[in-house]
Write a structure and sequence with these properties.
The structure holds 2 protein chains of 2 kinds. Chain A is mainly beta. Helices cover 0% and strands 48% of the residues of chain A. The termini of chain A are far apart. Chain B has strands at residues 4-5, 10-14, 19-25, 30-38, 45-51, 56-59, 62-67, 72-77, 86-94, 103-104, 108-113. In chain B, the strands form 2 sheets. In chain B, strands 2, 4, 5, 9, 10 and 11 form a 6-stranded mixed beta sheet that branches. In chain B, strands 1-3-8-7-6 form a 5-stranded antiparallel beta sheet, with no helix packed on it. The chains are: A mainly beta, B mainly beta.
Chain lengths: 114, 114
């Protein structure tokens, strides 16, 4: 596709369940980022991939959160034992090399934990 | 502890007039600043950026000013158009930080009235 695609666009899950959020970056983009935006807040950095490896995962809030990018393209953000506080819009972005100014964001996945 | 602050949650401006959006930061290590624009149900879109070695950057109707001594930057939109109505986020990054780790403000919702 032409842009960054995130699926699903909306996800409702019960507290304690496991969820996976998918990001399809723009083809050829080596850098991929995950951010989380809670209501009334700006996006908050979670993790940054350069190729297949996580170059910076310092934003992951705890060990319930994990992200992979096994082939250097599609990435999956995984959340175990979801809590109500995990409810937010999860944004993915990609860029050709790295550097935030060139990053293109997807429309986000709205996660609601009930 | 917010490192990037946008103290005005909203701003209303008449079409054709100037819109001025403000942003303050606390971390003197920040050396690169960006503005993003976000429409509802879409991801943020990069608008304009400025390096700390400059005090002004202009791109069409958009100009960003940086005052390092005051740790303040502003985005000017002249003339404002109804299509500019969106939430504007200020973001910052720093030398030594990963290229994907941006610190965002909470955003300012701009409404441009016809």
């Amino acid at each position: 596709g032409a842009g960054v695609s995130q699926t699903p666009s909306n996800k409702v899950t019960e507290k304690g369940k496991y969820v996976e959020l998918r990001c399809d970056p723009i083809s050829g983009h080596t850098a991929l980022y995950w951010y989380r935006q809670s209501l009334g807040q700006g996006p908050e950095f979670l993790i940054y991939f350069q190729g297949t490896g996580a170059a910076d995962d310092s934003g992951l809030p705890n060990d319930r959160f994990f992200a992979v990018r096994p082939e250097g393209s599609v990435s999956t953000l995984k959340i175990q034992r979801t809590e109500r506080g995990d409810s937010a819009v999860y944004l993915c972005a990609s860029s050709p090399r790295g550097g935030p100014a060139e990053a293109f964001f997807g429309q986000g996945t709205r996660l609601t934990v009930v | 502890d917010q490192q990037v602050k946008q103290n005005s949650p909203s701003l209303s401006v008449q079409e054709g007039r100037i819109s001025i959006l403000n942003c303050d930061y606390t971390n003197s290590m920040f050396d690169y600043f960006l503005w993003y624009k976000k429409y509802p149900a879409e991801g943020p879109t990069f608008l304009i950026s400025i390096s700390s070695i400059k005090d002004k950057n202009e791109d069409g109707r958009f100009t960003v000013f940086l005052n390092k001594s005051a740790k303040h930057l502003s985005l000017h939109i002249v003339p404002s158009q109804p299509g500019d109505s969106a939430v504007y986020f200020c973001a910052a990054s720093w030398v030594g930080g990963s290229q994907g780790n941006l610190i965002f403000g909470k955003g300012t919702k701009l409404s441009v009235k016809p």
